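Sequence of Cytochrome P450 (Ephemerocybe angulata).
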Amino acid sequence: MHHIFVKDQHLYDESLFFIANNHILFGPGLFAMKGEQHRKQRKMLNPVFSVAHLRHMVPTFFKVSEQLSDTFSQKVGNQKQEMDMVTWMTRAALEIVGQSGMGTSFGPVTEEQEEPHYIASYKLGGAWLQRKIVDIFPWKVGHQMADIVDTVHNTSVDIFEEKKKVLAQGDTEEASQLNEGRDIIGILMRENQKAANEDKLCDAEIIAQMSVLIFAAMDTTSSALARILHLLSMHQDVQDKLRAELREARENYGDQPDYDQLISLPYLGAVCRETLRLYPPVPTVIRETQADAFLPLSTPITGVNGEEMSEIFLPKDSKIFISIQASNTDPTTWGSDSYEWKPERWLSPIPEAVQESRIPGVYSNLMTFIGGGRSCIGFKFSQLEMKVIMFSLLNRFKFSLPKEEIFWQMTIIASPTVDPTLSELRPRMPLSVSRLED
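Predicted 3D structure, token representation.
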């Protein structure tokens, strides 16, 4: 994997099919670029997701998560109620990315507010449905997705044009407010304005980043949040232990701990890491050889002719399916309990085998957020979002399993359902929610 994602990443890039479809869906954003243009966009975007900027986003994250908690409280009342976590985690993720990503609201996370149009993208199977393809077929679900893609694009254009107009006004009060703003796109536009001509992104590229941000931040993070709540419902002892840590933190730091205080909570970090290790939201990725290549093997194998092989020849355009989940659960690296969900493993030094494995991931010796030049640029944003929402919800509510059994579909983005035939297109995960005394 080190050769694929780091050393020889130019030989093992995203497939032409993947790039073309992302261009159709998102426009000329980070997901749809290769080579020098991808590096140029990434160079501009990297500072935008820095810890320095994330620190300023924590109050916005808490504003949305507390609104979510208030909605849960109103809905649950004094009796246990079943609530669909997919819907609510997706709505919260969308509103967080709207406010902290673009400085806009897609609608409050309340019972009365109509479900935002974007949420249907997740319920219709994720962002892999392409705009141009669905136009060809007379399927209702296809045209619903086409409408969503159009809505996302039009919204992105409107937000961009408004910000661009304000920035062009110079010394006005509105321009000053935008220059002091902390949302991701506002920061990107300011940095782009200051960049050298050869490094600047065109308007279409900035607009495309907004579409990428909406889909990427909403789908994968909501999947991870739903998975954590499912696991905590299955393991009440872990839920109780985590809640005890979070309530102690609330006593020490108040209702809205800052970035460093959140990151310092060991068991919250352990629960998030272990969930992302065992259940990565994107369990498999694909790479395609850009030229004939010899891929070195970490361990020699014996070929059908009986000869030992230490590398494999891959002709140009070969597709390589890489299991993120298999890497994260390899017993030779993580030990005999690698397939068990054990947050406590992160409270001790990681095994020597993990340190020596040279896993090229950007996060905790895991491949969950991949590695190299196409690693997930917003992985710290996603982790922070998960921790803020867990802090708000677990301080006030207890989650337990419903009567129906929950199944997880291993689609491009893992999604839950209660349909044992797995024929239901819309992800759904009801959990029993009860309000706790403060």
